[in-house]
Amino acid sequence: MAIVAIENLHKTYQIGLVEVVAIRGLDLLIREGEYVAIMGPSGSGKSTLLNILGCLDRPSKGTYLLADEDVSELSDDKLSMIRGTQIGFIFQSYNLIAQLNVIENIEVPMYYQGFTGHESAARAKELADIVGLGDRMKHRPSELSGGQQQRVAIARAMANNPVIILADEPTGNLDSHSGGEILKILDELHEHGKTLIVVTHDEDISRRCERVIHLFDGQIEREQFNRMENDNEMV
To answer: What is the pTM of this model?
Structure first.
């Protein structure tokens, strides 16, 4: 089943009198359970594509089907609902709320979807355990290492059981050891059937993915398919 189906996608920005073309007639199909890396030089369209995939922006032309629903021209309210229920975001800078502890940060997406306090707390504790933070549930972001903060971000991304997880340079702010631990968690999510799309400059990350999409000037320049290796060999 195709989770992401994009056809003839264009995105143009008007900056003053200058028209900037970020995406040019891009076609993309991502199937359920795939682990995909998106790579390319600065200005290749990676960030624009990620924003469209995450329903943070709309295409200027073309169609985008997410889990068979055309989200290309939805209203802001409907896009917000899609983001809250079907898409999990993992950012390089974690984007945690400094005043909230681990459990409360994980609960945030569930709060907006109408979960009761008991339901969201139970789900948040379960996710904290899954990402290895069972002993840090009451800690705030300032009391956590970078790797631990990214674990919170991953748990938060999983809170509403999204159909896709989008990760933007998920290990960009981490040392190699912490980054390796985060990548193991992403590997485990993939093994459990989650669809992951990772924007990265890191060749080590791309080698862990099943498919690597290389962008250049807003188009897919080439794709490569990787044979998945043993986890211990890849870390």
So the answer is: 0.91
pLDDT digits (tens, 9 = 90+) for 71-87: 998 999 999 999 999 99
Average pLDDT along the chain: 92
**181 pLDDT band (50/70/90 cuts)?**
very high
Q: Are 71 and 55 in contact (CB under 8 A)?
A: yes
Superfamily of domain 31-59+75-234: P-loop containing nucleotide triphosphate hydrolases (3.40.50.300)
Are the C-beta atoms of 53 and 213 separated by less than 8 Å? no
**Which residues sit opposite 88 in a β-bridge?**
165
**Cα dist from 21 to 14, 45, 74, 89, 168, whole Å:** 9, 9, 22, 25, 21
β-strands 35-39, 61-66 pairing: unpaired
Cα 39 → chain centroid: 14
DSSP letter at 111 equals H
Closest among 108, 112, 192, 86 to 152, alpha carbons compared: 108
Dig out the tokens for 75 from the structure.
Answer: 């209203």
Does residue 192 have a pLDDT over 90? Answer: yes
Q: Which residue has the tokens 């594509």?
A: 49
- Shortest CA distance to 87 belongs to which of 114, 51, 61? 51
